Amino acid sequence: IVCSLLFLGVVEMETKPTPHRLYICSFPSCSKTYNKQWKLDAHLCVHTGVKPYACEHDGCSKSFCSPYHLSRHELTHSRVKPFLCTVDGCTEAFTTNSNRARHVDRIHTQDRKKYVCRFEGCGLEFRKNKQLKSHMCEQHTQLPPYQCTYEGCQMRFAYPSKLKRHEKVHRGYPCTEEGCVFTGKTWTEYLKHRKEQHRVSLRCDQCSKVFRHSWFLDQHRQVHSDTRVVFKCPRDGCDRSFTTTFNLQSHISSFHEGLRPFACTHAGCAKTFSMKQSLQRHSVVHDPERKKLKIPRPRRSLASKLSGYSEAKRVVCKNRRKPESDSVSAHDTMRTAHTILHKSIYKVLSFLTWLFEVLVS
């Protein structure tokens, strides 16, 4: 029987052992998985932009995400080309297998499709259709072959990708929210509109905390779950564990790797962070408008703080199951007695606070 459970790098359910390790990227909206730690480390460069493997050759400042890519690059300095062309009579050699395959396809493949220029007296051959069209544009007609189809626009382009990019100027980026007629001229303008006008607020149904992304809400809900998932640090000698993959990745980046690439750009603030989300969360400190969005918590009285008893109104779940018998567990009895003790202390402190205020006035 093959176990179908997945564990996050290393993810362990508190009630089940983990027979294997699976390293999963903890960044939001990224579901990449790897079976080796170094593969995950190489992938994280895509998110952090940090390339830890630097070339030590004099005058070379290049850096890479993995030892493999660094060793492949070092071949350019040593001039060693281990991949020889497999075609008889060809003495070409290459630093990588992919470069050798590209060479064989371009030079030695006889049955490849050719695109021939039909202009009178030309007859040049090209391997790609877009190369032929670009040649026709530059050498013969002098007009790019791809013309904008919007009425009144005479723009032409040599490549379809540039035409597609240009057509967005006419079409724009319409807002997908129902009833909204806004159309952004650029993608950045569209995102800014979405952020300012259609900001999503997702509220936890257990504690009323508000989140702007469903991923953060799902991570937060684990706090209320009876069977919590524990994300253990996969580094040797480290026994730290976390309740979210975000906290795990932040721990690895800052504690084990010493990476804090995200710096606050606010004047006078020199704080740095290992995760982009941490920087975004910190930026609220410098933005008065975003501070107003925080939900104010009810102020607790001095008696409440000293006694540890909360005056918040209790919420009884309608779907709560009734006990099958009249017997009360020892845990429930202890919890009830503990609550009564705090409540009694709270009442005494409340009376003393009232008496003090009367005497002072």
UniProtKB/TrEMBL annotation:
Pfam families linked to this entry: TFIIIA_zf-C2H2 (PF22110), zf-C2H2 (PF00096)
Compartments where located: Nucleus
Molecular function per GO: DNA binding; RNA binding; zinc ion binding
Annotated C2H2-type domain residues: 23-52, 53-82, 83-113, 115-145, 146-172, 202-229, 231-261, 262-291
GO cellular component, one term: nucleus
GO terms, biological process: ribosome biogenesis
Subcellular location, principal: nucleus
Keyword Nucleus carried by entry: yes
Keyword field: DNA-binding, Metal-binding, Nucleus, Repeat, Ribosome biogenesis, RNA-binding, Transcription, Transcription regulation, Zinc, Zinc-finger
Gene3D superfamilies associated with the record: Classic Zinc Finger
Designated name of the protein: Transcription factor IIIA
Protein source organism: Mastacembelus armatus (zig-zag eel)
